[in-house]
Each structure stands twice: as C-alpha cells, then as structure tokens.
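Chapter review: from sequence to fold.
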Amino acid sequence: MRLLSKTFGGRSSKKFNMKLLIFAVMCCLVLISAYASTNYLWSAPTTVAISTFSPYIKVYYGDREVTSINFGNLIPGASVGILLRIVNTHPNATFYNINWNSTLKELTNKIRDEWWAPWPWPLSIAPRGYVSTEYRITVASDCPLATYTWTLYLYGSG
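The token string follows.
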C-alpha cells in the first residue's frame, strides 16, 4: 500500500504529472507548427511581367503604370485578383483590338490565370480610352512550393 501511495499520491506522482503535461504541451506545439507550416507558412512567391505590343498600350494599377505585378506569397487554394486599367494612349484616331496570352501554362498547371471582365476578348479600345478589368490567378491546393514568374502578353492590332 505504501508503494502505491508514493507512486500515485505522493511526490513521484506530481513529477509524473508534470512530465506528462510537458510532453502533451510539446506534442501540441509540434502539431500546431506542422499545421501552420503546411497551411500558412507555405507560400509561393508569384510575379508576372507585362509585355505590350505597342508603346501606346499602357497598363495601370491604380494611378501607377506597371510593367510587372507582384502578387506576393500565395497559399495553396488562394485566388487573388488585381484591378487593372488597359489604356490606349495613342494621340491619333487609332483603335486597338487587344487580346492576351501568358507563359504560365508552360510553367505550371497548378496556377491558373484569367481575366474577369463583363465583355469578351479581344478588347477594343478607342484612342485615349481605357478598359478596367481584373487579372486573376488561382493557386491549386496541391501546388508545389516554388517561385513562380511568368509573362503576360497583351497583343493585337491597331
């Protein structure tokens, strides 16, 4: 009886409980770290370069002309869009019919890009006119961790 009281009710029991508590806390921390690293800390840096066929076709993000877009670090399953304005800065009466393509499909099939606009492509932009649209990328949930950089081409005739 004395042996049981020392093991389960005395000082040894408190040490055992403390070790068990520390072990349980450590296991929880490991599980939380593993979950966070696979779901939140995993991220794919993504940057897209923008190339236009004419010096008169400009792409704006807000009030700033851009030649590349950095989407930052994206987590698997993320879908991010950025509002852009495609502007025809030609001073004469030149309409541009614009279409698009990107090198993303050559790079990976785990990230998809698309334009969200209420009208079909190709776009027709009047002189000194513009079209507001959203360029969107979607990252697959099984996308491998890597740095992704591709080129977005705006091409057409004018």
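Two observations follow directly from the output. The chain has a mean pLDDT of 80. The chain has three helices and ten strands.
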